[in-house]
Design goal:
CATH class of the largest domain: Alpha Beta
CATH superfamily of the largest domain: Pseudouridine synthase
CATH topology of the largest domain: Pseudouridine synthase
Structural class: alpha+beta
Largest sheet: 10 strands, mixed
Number of domains: 3
Radius of gyration: 24 Å
Order of helices and strands: EHHEEEEEEHEEEHEEEEEEHHEEH
Number of strands: 18
Amino acid sequence: MIEPDIITADVGAAEGKMRLDKFLSLKIPELSRAQIQRLIVGGNVSSEDIVLADNAYKVRVGDSFQIIIPPATEAEPEAENIEIDIIYEDEDLIVVNKPAGMTVHPAPGAYSGTLVNALLYHCRDNLSGIGGVKRPGIVHRIDKETSGLLVVAKNDLAHQGLSVQFAEHSIERTYLAVVYGVMVPPIGRITGNIGRSKFDRKKMAIVENGGKPAATNYKTLQAFGRVASLVQCNLETGRTHQIRVHLNSMGHALIGDKVYVKNKKSELALPADLKKYVNEFPRQALHAKSLGFLHPRTHQFMQFDSELPADMIDLIARLEDNFNFK
C-alpha cells in the first residue's frame, strides 16, 4: 500500500491573517489553489490534531499545519490501445494531433475510444498524477469533429503551468476553417460575449447579458468565387464553440457544421455533384493548425504546427478545381 505524503507548513511573521488556501498555495507551489482547496475540504489539513476544513480560515503567526497528500489513484477511464499522432512528448507534457471524430474526454455516451483512453494506454506509468489521480491533465479541448493540436499535461507541475497560461489567454492558437461565403471585410476581429443560447440549449451564442468575453481575429486566405473561403482564425480567448459562433454571427457558418447551419445551402452556384459534396461534408471543416506556449518547467517558448487533414485538403482541392485555380 502506498503511503500518503505528509507536508508541514509553518506560518511566518509576514503570513499571518492569510486565508488558509492562499497560504498553503504559497507553501506548496507544485499544487494549484484548486487542488489545495480540495485537500482542505476533504479533511486533509490539520493543526495540532484539529482538522481544518474551511478554505477561508485565517492563519496565525506560529501556526503549524500538516497537509496529507493522498497517493495518486488509478483513473476511472480505462486505458485503450488506440493509435494517436504524437507531435511531441517529454516528461511533463504531450502534444497530440487529434483526428476528427475523436472525443477528448470520456462523457455520457462516450466512455471509450476517447483521447484520454488512448493517452492512459500510451503514457502508462509516466503519469505522476493530476490532483491525486493518475490521469492525463486535459487543460483545453477541441470539439469531437474538429481536428488538430492539443497539449496535455502529464503531472501537476505541467497541469498548473499550462492552466495558468490558458486562463491568461497567453497561449497562441491558430485554426483553419472553410466557410460558406466570403468574409467582409476579409481581415478583422470579432468580439461578443459567448453564452448558452436561450433558444437552443445545445448551442452557444453571442449574448447581450452574461456569458464570457470572447475575441477572434480572422484573415481570409483564399476565396472560391463568392461560394466559400478558407479562413485563418487566431483566438484571443477560448470559449466553447467560439470560432463556430463568431463566424456564424457574421453570416459565414463552417461547411459541415450540423449545429450552426440551419439549412442546406441549396442556392450555391456550384455543379450539382460538388454542391452535394459541400453540403454533405461529414464534419465541420475546422482544424487546430498551430499551438504555442511556454514550457511549464523550462519556460522556453514552444511552437507546433500540423498539416491539414486529408478531408479538408480534398474539400479545398475540389473548390479550387471548380474555380480553375492554377
